[in-house]
Structure to design on (207 residues):
């Protein structure tokens, strides 16, 4: 665990309102659209939201009937906000406080891995490689990765931390030959501060 990184994120969620951060979405529409479009055909796919923070994605999936849900984040203060919001339902969701660059996840456990605005914080190749190793291990064969990062014309920093900006081909180059790109899209996110941020939304299949 990178303690400085964890302290940073715990502090953010402990001191700012949920809708007082640039990445806030009242409804994560693009993520939901892509999950609906690409989720495997099983009735109840196992989904993990990596770096889920206090996102309402887990609420939306729970409301839709998904019952195999996990949210991983380095900040327990973020997960506590989601747990409080969800109430009793939160007891049936797996909450994992971990750094994605050294987390331990079960092998081939998930049908769908979602990441909005987390991978792009890994600016060092060795950390990107650890992420790729983990997603490759934890996704089932044929499983789907829905990944969104800042686009090449997106911000150079988020939460005062440097990021790497990507188009989906560039994400694919980091993921390597174990993943096939299925879809590339772009979204301009309106922040709560009336500014705009360009995102790449990329869908991959684990081969
Ligand atoms: C920009 S926020 C996005 C949160 C959420 N995905 C959303 O769309 O609302 C980035 C999130 O990644 C988490 N995070 C940052 N680095 C991480 C790491 N190395 N491992 C796990 N989570 C991390 C932060 O705590 C934060 O919740």
């Amino acid at each position: 665990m990178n303690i400085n990184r964890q302290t940073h994120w715990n502090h953010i969620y402990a001191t700012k309102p949920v809708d007082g951060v640039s990445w806030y979405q009242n409804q994560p529409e693009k993520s939901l659209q892509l999950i609906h479009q690409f989720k495997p055909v099983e009735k109840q796919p196992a989904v993990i939201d990596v770096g889920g923070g206090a996102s309402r994605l887990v609420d939306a999936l729970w409301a839709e009937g998904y019952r195999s849900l996990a949210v991983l984040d380095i900040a327990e203060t973020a997960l506590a906000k989601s747990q409080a919001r969800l109430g009793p339902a939160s007891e049936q969701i797996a909450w994992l406080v971990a750094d994605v660059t050294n987390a331990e996840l079960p092998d081939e456990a998930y049908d769908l891995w979602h990441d909005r605005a987390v991978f792009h914080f890994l600016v060092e190749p060795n950390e990107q490689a650890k992420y790729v190793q983990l997603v490759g291990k934890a996704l089932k064969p044929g499983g789907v990765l829905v990944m969104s990062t800042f686009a090449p014309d997106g911000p150079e920093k988020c939460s005062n931390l440097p990021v790497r900006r990507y188009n989906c081909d560039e994400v694919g180059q980091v993921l390597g030959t174990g993943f096939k790109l299925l879809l590339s899209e772009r979204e301009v996110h309106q922040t709560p501060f009336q500014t705009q941020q360009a995102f790449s939304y990329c869908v991959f299949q684990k081969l």
